[in-house]
Amino acid sequence: MSSDDELTPSEVTEFQKSKDNLLEDSRKVFEDVHADFCDIRKILLKFQEWKEKFPDSYCDAYISFCLPKLLNPLIRVQLINWNPLEVGLEEMPWFRAIEEFSDAKNVSESKRDDDTDQEVLPRVIEKTILPKITGIVRFVWDPLSTSQTKNLVQLCNNIFEKQDTFIILFKQDLLNMVVLRLKKSVEEDVFIPLYPKRHSLTANGISMPSTLVRQPPPPRVLYSALGPPTQEGHGPVGASPEEDHEDDQRAGAPLL
């Protein structure tokens, strides 16, 4: 596994300086806008009041379909400093505000039984969040990083378990990108030993466990969509030592 501290101090300093400048510029985007029109929680409160006072008018206006587009630019500004490999969605204030709005019950009397506000959060995730995560996977994610991979798996599991009805297309795009990054990592960064996977030989012929060779952890998030991976000549990943021993004997490989 690779550590997450492979940058030199000068590179870290330069990156942090560029990041700070970018964040400073992002704070100026809505500096001339009143808080009532750029604070997501306050905006949703206005719509909630409309829904409670005039529910039929609210439903006729298809607000639940308009809100994701309305909130999109505000959310994207909040996502500038968000790294899904480090911080979960649930920790962000705007996410909690939308989640509370989607789960809120209409306490007013209305002739309508349908409430499409519960679709606001899934649509925000579909249109705004998943494209961001896909970009992070493509350009930032290091499959050899244990911490990044665990955080990515947890994030994807949380999203897919709660919002799988609305994000089929974008979910597949994300999974395809994960597969491409894994393939690229195997081709460019990972050494696959030719000896039995329990052992590998160094340049001077000394035997060492193959667990010391850099290999990417298999993200569990792919298992549900692609099935467990298999290794040619060694059976399914996670096979018992006895099965590996029998495979090695059949292949004529030296038993170290």
TrEMBL record:
Subcellular location(s) of the protein: Nucleus
List cellular component terms (GO). nucleus
What are the UniProt keywords, alphabetically?
A: Nucleus
Presence of the UniProt keyword Nucleus in the record? yes
Query: Where would you say this protein principally sits, based on its record?
Result: nucleus
Presence of the UniProt keyword Nucleus in the record = yes
Residue intervals of the GCF C-terminal domain: 41-185
The terms under GO molecular function for this entry are: DNA binding
GO-annotated biological processes: mRNA splicing, via spliceosome
- The protein's superkingdom reads Eukaryota
Region Disordered, as annotated, extends over 206-256
Q: Which family does it belong to?
A: Belongs to the GCF family.
Instruction: Provide the protein name.
Output: GCF C-terminal domain-containing protein
Organism in which the protein naturally occurs: Accipiter nisus (Eurasian sparrowhawk)
Instruction: Output the lineage of the source organism.
Output: Eukaryota, Metazoa, Chordata, Craniata, Vertebrata
